[in-house]
TrEMBL record:
This is Ribosyldihydronicotinamide dehydrogenase [quinone]. Its cofactor is FAD; Zn(2+). One of its GO terms (biological process) is quinone catabolic process. SUPFAM superfamilies: Flavoproteins. It catalyses: 1-(beta-D-ribofuranosyl)-1,4-dihydronicotinamide + a quinone + H(+) = beta-nicotinamide D-riboside + a quinol. It is an enzyme of class 1 (oxidoreductase). GO terms for cellular component: cytosol; nucleoplasm. Signal peptide: none annotated. Its EC number is 1.10.5.1. Belongs to the NAD(P)H dehydrogenase (quinone) family.
């Protein structure tokens, strides 16, 4: 939709990968709609995933005992977080929709993306206490996960060997994104592209592009335990 701003947080090492294709088609389709699209290509940026003392540029509030959460919160209030965090926070702040494009690693995100979440979504910026879940500081924004898996779709049902795919979405969509106030759109999961034919992979990319045509009309999921685990 014209005038909307989208941030794509992208975590894959190879530009010509299937993840790269999904990211590229999202940039193309959203740009075609008149959106302003920004990509944080975490591997290309050599983004620092570790939450350390180096993230605070000024004096520590408790130098005798280092607590990352406390110090990041204080630094956020004083605008003394390190510049790479501030740059990413500004991109999030400006975005109407934040899209995460990544391959599933151990039912979760790659380490570089986990580090982005740990460092960028800090207290004082993404949430406060009080100020989380429906009152999270990023409320009014949309988020969506676009994930590729190694396993096939039949592995990710309740009766499948990996269990329902919604189980692994709980800590990401609910415990992270909803906690920070995002309204979460239904995930886009591309199952087992490595085992698909070239034709099938093209179809998977096309279906993502097709969905993005009407993404702004979608209703968020009801992000609460029943969506993930049933009644």
């Amino acid at each position: 939709m014209a005038g909307k701003k989208v941030l794509i947080v992208y975590a894959h090492q190879e530009p010509r990968s299937f993840n790269g294709s999904l990211k590229d088609v999202a940039v193309a389709e959203l740009s075609r709609q008149g959106c302003t699209v920004t990509v944080s290509d975490l591997y290309a940026m050599d983004f620092e995933p570790r939450a350390t003392r180096k993230d605070i540029t000024g004096a520590l509030s408790s130098p005798e005992f280092f607590s990352y959460g406390v110090e990041a919160y204080e630094a956020c209030k004083k605008r003394s977080l390190t510049s790479d965090i501030i740059v990413e926070q500004k991109k999030v702040q400006e975005a109407d929709l934040v899209m995460f494009q990544f391959p599933l690693y151990w039912f979760s995100v790659p380490a570089v993306l986990k580090g982005w979440m740990d460092r960028v979504l800090c207290q004082g910026f993404a949430f406060d206490i009080p100020g989380f879940y429906d009152d999270g500081l990023l409320k009014g924004k949309l988020a969506i996960l676009s994930i590729t898996t190694g396993g096939t779709a039949d592995m990710y049902w309740k009766t499948g060997v990996s269990g329902d795919f919604r189980y692994f979405l709980w800590p990401l969509q609910h415990g992270t994104l909803h906690f920070c106030g995002f309204k979460v759109l239904a995930p886009h999961i591309s199952f087992a592209p490595e085992f698909a034919s070239e034709e099938e992979r093209k179809g998977m990319v096309a279906s993502w592009a097709q969905r993005l045509k009407t993404i702004w009309n979608e209703e968020p999921i009801p992000c609460s335990p029943p969506w993930y685990f049933g009644q």
